[in-house]
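Supplementary Text 2. Reproducibility record for the structural model of the 521-residue chain.

All settings were left at their defaults, and a single model was retained for analysis rather than an ensemble. We include the record here because the model underlies the residue-level annotations in Supplementary Table 4.
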Amino acid sequence: MSAVLTPTVTASPWRAALVTLGFVLLCLAVAYRDTMIGMVGIWYRSETFAHAFLVPPITAWLIWRQRATLARLVPRPQPWLLAAMAACSAVWLVSDLVLVNAASQFAWVGLLVLAVPAVLGLQVASVILFPLLFLFFGVPFGEFMLLPMMNWTADFVVVALQVTGVPIYREGLRFVIPTGSWSVIDECSGVRYLIASFMVGSLFAYLNFRSYKRRVVFMLVSLAVPIVANWLRAYIIVMLGHLSGNRIAVGVDHILYGWVFFGVVIFVMFMIGSRWAQPDDPQPQGPVALTTQADASTGALVATALGALLISVAPHLVTWELQRVERAASPPQLGLPATLPAGWTLVDKPALEWTPVWQNPSTLAHQGYAGPAGRVGLFVAYYRGQEGERKLVSSRNEVVGMNDRKWNPMGSRRVSVESAGRRIDAQSTDIQAPTTADRAAPQALVAWRVYWIDGRFVAGDAEAKLRNALARLMGRGDDGAAIVIYADRDSFEDGAAAVRAFAAANLTPLGDLLQQTRDRR
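Retained model, structure tokens:
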């Protein structure tokens, strides 16, 4: 009697691994949904980041291209990577406390990326490493480069016009030539060109080069080219307007010419890069080998899933408790006194069509004071219960708005003053109105900005963010205020003298007033 032996084949380990990965990603999406929704909201509102809608489908397509290679691998979960995920979760918590959206979004995407090797293993993740890293292009990041790139563009245009013999007078980001006046605004900075170029340049390098050296070089080129191209674009547009008597390149066609020029530059960059393209590695052929044992052990998968669930929930327990306490506080009430030390008395605020830009404060006080050194304006924006649209320190909160058509920031610097025996640092900004025919000299304005947080004065944005986070963790709430003292004079020196005199006499009393406001929670 004979027996027929048949091989015993267990179910593919991919099924359980993919189900676990789906569970982990679902936990991360639900727990961090506010971060995810905030990212997508920026994609929708901002033309600078509209390209990010393409990131998820491109990532899926790049992973799909590797399906033949992935099918020949066996997923092996790596629960030890939960430690790295916990570190990302801690970064998210700190970022959420200091209300730095970009950092919290990077941390969340980092959690998504780390979930893949944690569940499927390092070998699988290495095959799709670039698609996973490509997800970081979905984070709205780079707007901090707006002002530097605006200044670089203005510097280049001024030099280029001078070299080509066009007389020019510059005031900050504005300049005047014989045929009219021009200004470099945020749309002219080139940030959106830079971000889009780097994303598509990185994708091009991955798809066309096998050498890591060539990929890195091309990615660096994709960063440098849009910067220089934007300088040339701005110069060409000004020259087109100048030579045509402002008949072209001054309206909607201004933007159109910019995008056409950018498209041509990127096309040429890709054409040059394609000359060094390398063929793809051959895809593996033949049937997929079956395994006789489940390498993706159930225990490791369960441990990874439970660890990811804990990582998803833990930081939110901290933020929910802090928010519960902070939301129980009453709305703040702030009033400026009629008199302040050293003979400063309340008067109408200076008759200027200018005010600092601080979005959605909990309460606001804006008034003028007259004293021995002259007349100053005092602006106090007080914040309590800070959240996404109400933040003391934000890129949208500025002494001079990014698109302000009347006032030009001429430069900023750190200053110090002694007030009641305490040294207090502040940020001083010289501001100037454009020259007009009815004024012999442009109107000069000096503004000092300082933050008050948890009983202390701080000058820097980063320090203010960190001190606010520490105060929240210590259970002292998130109250804080931005104080702006300003004076308009015929010269920056006269304005600075008046502001310094007021700050020396009154910053400490103002800090005591703000402390009383915080204590009335």
